[in-house]
Amino acid sequence: MKPRSYWQENLRLVAGCLAVWFVVSFGFGILLVDELNRIPLGGFRLGFWFAQQGSIYVFLALIFFYAWRMGRLDRKHGVDEED
Known about the structure:
This protein is mainly alpha-helical. It has helices at residues 3-31, 33-36, 46-77, and strands spanning 40-41, 44-45. Strand 1 (40-41) and strand 2 form a beta hairpin.
C-alpha cells in the first residue's frame, strides 16, 4: 500500500464532494436563486426548492456516494475491512 497515494485520492474525493455541495447549496440556493426561480418544480420555484430541500437531498446523496467510493478506494489500496 502507498499511504501517500491513498491519502491524495481521498483528499481529491473529499474536495470533489465539497465542491458539489458548495455549488448546490450556495450557488443554486443563494447566488442563482433569482434565475432558478423562473423555473417551476412541482408548484414551487426551483431556486426556493434548492434552498429548502434540494441541497439537503444532494448532501444525502453525497454521503452515500462518498461511502461507496471510499469502499472502492479501500479495496484498491488493500485497507478494506475483510470479514
